[in-house]
Amino acid sequence: MRLALYQPDIPQNAGTMMRMAACLGVAVDLIEPAGFDASDRNLRRAGLDYLARLDLARHVSFARFDAARRAEGRRLVLATTRGAVPYWDFAFRPTDILMVGRESAGVPDEVHDLADARLVVPMREGLRSLNVAVTAAMILGEARRQMR
Ligand SMILES: C[S@@+](CC[C@H](N)C(=O)[O-])C[C@H]1O[C@@H](n2cnc3c(N)ncnc32)[C@H](O)[C@@H]1O
């Protein structure tokens, strides 16, 4: 499994997800531009001391990321509040990329539409969304449970 961060806005959330990924052995795709200085130097300065242990790929745009993952035959599995499939009903594959959207706006419609699957973490009626890092942890947790 890989975890893709679509143009993250909030460094603390990106740092939390990168730390989790380093600890779990999940590679990260950082799709730029980010809403903050996402250079290695700045990430380290912000306290991400696990950076050296993280398998991190940077992509200058979504188009470049999408071309690379298609070339590798990986499915793009989007976490979205507009998803139709509860994440626990999805059969994950080890080659999947789980992508989370940006904190301020999720992902654009065209990105939403081209994903191979759109998963939701069901929530109580009337509430907007979960924190993005919490979402990533819940869905990766289910994927890892399925793959043991
Ligand atoms: C704070 S939310 C974005 C909210 C944004 N206003 C929107 O309309 O998408 C940031 C990201 O967290 C993930 N997320 C948050 N809650 C979720 C949920 N209940 N199900 C699936 N993904 C969720 C999605 O990837 C989303 O793009």
Produce the secondary structure layout.
Blueprint: E1 2-6, H1 11-24, E2 27-31, H2 40-45, E3 56-59, H3 62-71, E4 76-79, E5 85-86, E6 97-100, H4 109-114, E7 117-120, H5 132-147
Parallel strand pairs: 1-2, 1-6, 2-3, 4-6, 4-7, 5-7
The protein binds S-adenosylmethionine (SAM).
Task: Explain how this protein is built.
- The chain is α/β, with parallel strands linked by helices.
- 35% of the residues lie in helices and 19% in strands.
- The chain contains five helices and seven strands; from the N terminus they run βαβαβαβββαβα.
- A seven-stranded parallel sheet has the order 3-2-1-6-4-7-5, sandwiched between helices.
- α1 (11-24) packs parallel to α5.
- The longest helix has 16 residues, at 132-147.
- It binds S-adenosylmethionine (SAM).
- S-adenosylmethionine (SAM) is lined by residues 79-81, 83, 100-101, 103, 105-106, 120-121, 123, 129-130, 132, 135.
